[in-house]
Design brief:
2 domains, alpha/beta, six-stranded antiparallel β-sheet, 14 strands, six-stranded parallel β-sheet, Rossmann fold, Elongation Factor Tu (Ef-tu), domain 3, single chain, 294 residues
Length: 294
């Protein structure tokens, strides 16, 4: 997948999937698949989206995104040839027609665009699918609307389930995963014989319900069962930002600086402040036993 900028122009005709794609859930997958179908007409499957971190307010309230832009692009990269993801502020003041002409026609060279039936564009979200179809007729590209229906899975539903820790309701079709670099922690886990790898959440990124989860971890295309705690490690003194701390079963290598994917399967228990590290160790043993027996 090639990332392009607002200074580029794609030479071949494209079929562009349009949307924020936060969560890359099954509704988004439908849009992406429909864009991919145009490869049979020699249109390069492509995506227009916004850099996730550049969206500060959505529906009148602070926006907590599910995936960072890097994580999102990793999830949508399969079978996509080009992606354009500018900052929202670079596009927000364009009228609907300016967006179509400058972005879709001149930069992305669209032969077709695909979006959901709730897609909005142009300054203050002034345009919808009827305007998009009119612009398609004017500028010579096809518009395909992926009808999601009233009960379709939404990004807001995704956020609600994560806030409640209900990750099992997301698996497998909308499985939540954390894709990111392993950073060095305080290494408390090593002192109680349960070494962990740490992944940080970005500013304004939605942090799922604090607690312990049954997970599986992908390292160099190999999959390992694992146990992940999301939270602030209340048993250990000091203030800290929320992070995901994963103990990987049957693995003993050094992962610092490496990018791994942790996929969440089941919520086991809330995060608890224990009276001692020994008490914490005993509970971790129980958590790991539950994962092994699942």
């Amino acid at each position: 997948m090639t990332e392009i900028t607002l200074n580029d122009r794609i030479k071949e005709k494209t079929a562009a999937a349009l949307g924020l794609f936060d969560g890359v859930h099954e509704g988004h997958e439908l849009i992406l698949r429909n864009a991919g179908m145009y490869s049979m007409r020699n249109y390069a499957p492509s995506v227009f989206t916004f850099r996730t971190e550049s969206i500060k307010i959505k529906h009148g309230k602070p926006f907590e995104y599910i995936y960072t832009n890097r994580q999102k692009l990793e999830k949508i990269s399969k079978n996509i040839r080009y992606v354009l993801s500018p900052d929202f502020d670079e596009v927000r003041n364009m009228t609907g027609e300016e967006f179509v002409e400058k972005i879709l026609v001149n930069i992305m060279n669209v032969g077709a665009v695909v979006c959901g039936d709730n897609f909005r564009f142009g300054k203050n979200a002034s345009c919808g699918i009827s305007e998009l179809k009119s612009f398609g007729e004017k500028y010579g590209f096809e518009v395909k609307i992926s009808k999601l229906g009233e009960n379709h899975f939404s990004s807001e539903k995704y956020r609600e389930l994560l806030r409640n820790g209900e990750v099992e309701k997301l698996y497998p079709h909308n499985a939540y995963s954390l894709f990111g670099e392993v950073v060095r922690g305080n290494q408390i886990g090593r002192t109680i014989n349960f070494p962990t790898v740490n992944q940080l959440y970005a500013e304004n990124q939605l942090v799922p319900k604090f607690g312990v989860y049954r997970t599986r971890t992908f390292i160099d295309e190999k999959c390992f069962p694992s146990v992940t705690n999301i939270g602030v490690k209340p048993t250990v003194k000091g203030e800290r930002n929320p992070l995901a701390e994963t103990h990987i079963l049957h693995f003993g290598g050094n992962l610092y600086g490496k990018t791994i994917t942790v996929e969440f399967l089941e919520f086991i228990r809330p995060e608890i402040k224990f009276s001692s590290l020994d008490e914490l160790k005993n509970q971790i043993e129980k958590d790991i036993s539950r994962v092994k027996n699942n």
